[in-house]
Amino acid sequence: MRVWIAEKPSVGRELAKYLGKGVQKNGYIEIAGTGDVVTWLFGHILQQKTPQMYDPQYASWSPALLPIVPQKWELFVKPEAKEQYQTIKELLKQADEIVHVGDPDREGQLLVDELLEYLKNKKPVKRLLLNALDEISIKRALKDLRNNADFQPLKESALARGRADWLIGMNLTRAYTAMARQAGYDEVMRIGRVKTPTMALVVRREREIRAFRPTKHYGLKANLEQTGKCFSAVWLIPEEFPGCDSEGRILQRERVENVIQEILQSVKNGEAFRAEDVAKKESAEVPLLPLSLSALQIQAGKLGYTPQQVLDIAQKLYEMKLTTYPRSDCEYLPTTQFKDAKVILENLAWSGWQEEVAGVDVNRKSRAWADEKVSAHHAIIPTTLLCDKARLSKEQQDIYTLIACAYLAQFYPPHRFSKTALRIRIGNHTFQGTGKVVLEEGWRTLYKAEPDNEKPEEEAFLPDIQNGDEVSLREMNVQEKITKPPKRFNLSSIIEAMKNIHHFVREETLKAQMKECSGIGTEATRAGILDELVQGKFLRVEKNMLYATDIAEKLFDALPESLAYPDITAIWEDKLARIAKNNFSSEAFLDSTTDFVKTLLGEAKGKTISVIEGQILCPVCKKGILKRLSGKKQGTFFWGCSCYPDCQTRYSDKRGKPDIG
């Protein structure tokens, strides 16, 4: 008997439909006359043991018991999954061969592998990689069954990630929760390898906005004419111009007005504006790549969708067989997929994209098709299944349209344009003019109708000027400008920041290295991490914008820089990717993580979180806060220090307040 183990019931059911006539059983589907049985998990049905499961003494969250490092890592079956666990256990006893049908990523690899190891399986295991659930994709994947042992490094990467997160989370959460409770905060201070640096990004941005002071400054714009055609140019402020601030900005309007008078006098004296350094260049902008989950979440954010909504909708489209695997971090496609293009494009035409499909060249192969850049999964694209828009909700249509447009763009010509730059000089002053003329819209035609599309670069039409040509002055205007504060993160831009974390590192020397890694978190976890930060009261969301809470700022001030900045976390993601490629040891990674945890715990000792407003600071130790506690007799109370037993200060209760005297 061959047992197929899918990651979730929906995948199992679709696979069973293709394998043959299925008979539904309790927790599995038996394929009639084939000897095949399809069963499924519910994501992870095994869970890492908590500290107190290893040793009852860890029921206490005392910092004195830290660090907690399991000598042997152990799992347990989630209570809600026991019945399905037993079903799979019995099926495996009868199996001759097992097929692993977890999602094609490191977490999907782990959740089936960990169960097989937990059950001490010795039977042969094959690996089925499903990037989509339509019939063609399933058929193609079945012809390419792999040896599951080939994916051992991918499993090791996921295992190392889970254990590292356990070490960071269990140890640092306990240390900082104890610290916070001394300050009167009763919530659990959940620290995470990805979660905490993400929170810190928002806190730092919050403080930058708060500290920002707008600066009014001035520039000069000239409206010019040549051969009857008008254009504009801006004055280039000389480096040593008097009255500039450290950023080279002019802060006094009268200085610019003086320049206007000086130029007008030059014109009056017969001097002319003359063109110099005229440069023209034709450029071509190739299409954006097909979408990864992060790219889809960022684009959909402009339409008002949260990252979690996008993931949920993309998952539903995948289960409807309309799009490929949604949790992809890849923006490229395998060359073997190119042969499906004709069918996909024909289906899109039938589904309402006739005009857009009319502009494609089905033989055009963009840079997206690159086998060397595709791992276990590829970019999210439409499947070969015809999409009936009437079956889709408005939300599903929006997300499907984004996916379809990104795919269509691969068959459009580049966006071609001509740029001209020139300088206009009069006396001691130089103006600069730039212009852009679109020669061919190309793939950008697909994005013109988007309501929240980024505004294109301002297009100006410059006359056909040559070096030395004279131009006429029509008027000059003072430009009044004001500096703007940094943009607040929203639910889309924070995803982009997590993906492109190299922009936010502390060490400049690490930027190049981090640019090569995939950021912090994964495509599948980033939306959940943001939800946890909101649920944990570290962030709040108002009109899609992210704000840091008071406790987030207090925690930030108590954190060591290695937790508050993404440098270490991003380097770890790079190491996890190397483990997945079998060129780094998971044991070495966990050893270094353990050492790092010990260092962080050492740095946490002696630190405090500032007392929350309204709390009473202990007048003796000046670290803890006084808390009202129940006495031995019912209905009696006293006040004790939150630093007990280190501080045993105690006061009587006097009408709900400590009787300090």
Description:
Helices cover 35% and strands 19% of the residues. β3 and β4 form a beta hairpin. The termini are far apart. 38% of the residues are buried.
Question: Notable features of this structure?
Answer:
single chain, 661 residues, alpha+beta, seven-stranded mixed beta sheet, 21 strands, 35% helix
Number of strands: 21
Strand order, largest beta sheet: 2-3-4-1-7-8-9
From the alpha carbons, calculate the radius of gyration and give it in angstroms. Answer: 31 Å
N- and C-termini, Cα separation: 80 Å
Strand content: 15-25%
As a percent range, the share of helical residues equals 25-40%
Sum this structure up briefly.
The protein is α+β, with helices and mostly antiparallel strands. It is 35% helix and 19% strand.
Strand-helix topology:
Blueprint: E1 2-6, H1 9-19, E2 22-24, E3 28-31, E4 36-40, E5 46-48, H2 51-54, E6 75-77, H3 82-94, E7 97-101, H4 106-118, E8 125-127, H5 135-142, E9 146-147, H6 152-182, H7 195-211, E10 216-226, E11 229-235, H8 253-268, E12 273-285, H9 293-301, H10 307-319, H11 341-350, H12 354-358, H13 394-408, E13 415-426, E14 429-440, E15 470-482, H14 493-499, H15 511-516, H16 526-535, E16 539-542, E17 545-548, H17 550-558, H18 561-564, H19 567-580, H20 586-604, E18 626-630, E19 637-641, E20 650-654, E21 657-658
Parallel strand pairs: 1-4, 1-7, 7-8
Antiparallel strand pairs: 2-3, 3-4, 5-6, 8-9, 10-11, 10-15, 11-14, 12-13, 12-15, 13-14, 16-17, 18-19, 19-20, 20-21
